[in-house]
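Extended Data, panel c. Modelled sequence:
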Amino acid sequence: MSIANQPAHHPAPDQLPGSLNASAPLPVFRTPMLDGDRQLFAYEILFPALADQTQDLPQRVLSTITDGALTRLSRGNRAFVNLPSELLLEGSDVLLHQPRLGVVLRPDVANDAAQMKLVKQMAQRGCQIMIDASDAPLGDSLAVEALLQTAQFVRLDADRLSPEDMRERSSRLHARGLGVIAGQVNEHTTYQRCLELPLQAIQGRYLLIPQPVEVPVLSANRLSMLRLMSLLEEGNPGPVEMGKIVRDDAVLSYKLLSCVNSAYFALPRQMKSIEQAAIFFGATRMRNWINTMVMCTMDDRPPELLRAALIRAHMCEGLATGMPRGSSETAFTVGLFSLLDTLMCAPMEFLLTQLRLSPEISDALTGRNSPFGPLLQDVIAWEAGALTSGNTQPQRIRRMATVYLEATQWADQVFNVAGNSRTAN
């Protein structure tokens, strides 16, 4: 059993917050918006199952807001809920009591007098409003002007707008005191252009995509990390050998033992050495933990990128249930290393020549045939919001949602325990 899967943290499936039944909140997931320093500005909270329209949908949405699930998911940071305006406005009273929770609205809400009345009331009580101008232009009507006077933020679609239009619109909105969010920033060239604009935050898949490099140049610290990871893969080291590999890195040893001994995992006894922990958990699982702690020391990379790698690792591990024995640990490695090229700023093929991973892992990471490839692709589709009840079976949504919520909780806890100085946003 994984250290992340202690019985105390596993309610029955029909009690999990991600279950798609009438008595449970809807599945949710978060996407980060980062400022110019690559620190978290806010999360956007999305509900991937809204194509499954039911009569009790508003109540299920509101229960998800009121039971604290969104606060836990956003880690107490600023967050914006993205839902159809009719559902959001039904819950306007609830949102007034969530000071860190704002709403995302479409420009067409400006044309509905009843909805605009509620929007103004919400804004007056401190609920932050973001206008998503991605799908439709704002226009110059009096109604839209009233909406802009109520809002604090406007999101523009950096993928659909030309660089000239993006610059002109962001400058104009910024000049009138609105915070501008660049959405759909899915390429590094677009990201670099956005850094030159008066933006509050940037959002998109660019964060998870490796930057193209002609010749990889790794710092001494990166090379040291790769050497340590390589030693863990070579010769199938046992507990004693693992202890020797890690022993010279006092900081890594301290973080590793702090993490496995944290109250979150509720172990029956305290682990006093790497060797003892490796005997208790098994060498394969301990290797995964060491790799996790190594990656958490990369404090020059965006914290949300590191969290994404941890979430992928735990989701792949959870989805490997039912595969042959030992598959969960392998799946964890696949998920953890799936962002290694982005973290290291080096091509995946180059990194794999340094690590000498098993073929089933390296094949999954490079898109070749591997039993773990579909797991990773499902996780990537989930984090991109591509799995909805419109194209995926409800039971699959239910499983993905459950695993995702567990993974975010686990990743946030591990990242905090790792002692990274940049976890506080």
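Strands lie at 29-34, 40-46, 79-82, 101-105, 129-132, 153-157, 179-183, 201-202. This feature is highlighted in the accompanying rendering.
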